[in-house]
Amino acid sequence: xxxxxxxxxxxxxxxxxxxxxxxxxxxxxxxxxxxxxxxxxxxxxxxxxxxxxxxxxxxxxxxxxxxxxxxxxxxxxxxxxxxxxxxxxxxxxxxxxxxxxxxxxxxxxxxxxxxxxxxxxxxxxxxxxxxxxxxxxxxxxxxxxxxxxxxxxxxxxxxxxxxxxxxxxxxxxxxxxxxxxxxxxxxxxxxxxxxxxxxxxxxxxxxxxxxxxxxxxxxxxxxxxxxxxxxxxxxxxxxxxxxxxxxxxxxxxxxxxxxxxxxxxxxxxxxxxxxxxxxxxxxxx
Length: 285
Description:
- The chain has helices at about 1-5, 35-40, 55-65, 90-100, 135-150, 170-185, 200-205, 230-235, 245-250, 260-275, and strands spanning about 25, 30-35, 70, 105-115, 115-125, 155-160, 190-200, 215, 255-260.
- The chain is of the alpha/beta class.
- The chain is globular, with a radius of gyration of 20 Å.
């Protein structure tokens, strides 16, 4: 606590967090965590184990073998409908691009994962809630096509609020496109592994994210189509405890394994080596 007091700053007169820049606060238990320790622990609280949302770049670094990732996601979104709500869609896109430094809500490329050649796609919740518009759908379809052409496994880390409403039916069409692209992998018996993180909802859950050979989920992740509040209001009933959380879905057969993020790469590698036809399986790796 002495170290914490040393770095603590006075709260600004206009308000603000009572936590210094060198520290962060767990969303679940409220523990104050040294930021460097928090990042080294892959954004998992060392006190209670709560899994916080993780930047897309750090997920790539966590899963891809060092020095092997080559980014391929470069498509930029358009505004074919000229959509305007409280703000023009074009302006929203510019703001998200400025905040995240990427053209849309996905980061992906080719890499090796535990020595297995792969295409890795990571959805970015920081960009429009990870919503799936035309660019995200196209990048996923192209990723699946590249994996099939080059004999690579496909690994997708999902984090999304669903379809992007500003693209209307064009966004919904991505559900069919992404599902159809997966058929190319299955035709060549190449593995597809899906990692469901908090949150994975809407059209993403209802399409490619739930169709993998192996589906991992992070502890406590919200996974579903409509949110629990909407379902509760629709059926006018109380929902079971833990409804739509990863552990609930594991119990009911929708996911194959709930895995702590700190063990995730090891278990993904085991699945890929077991399923990839061109890689000898090494038990216990």
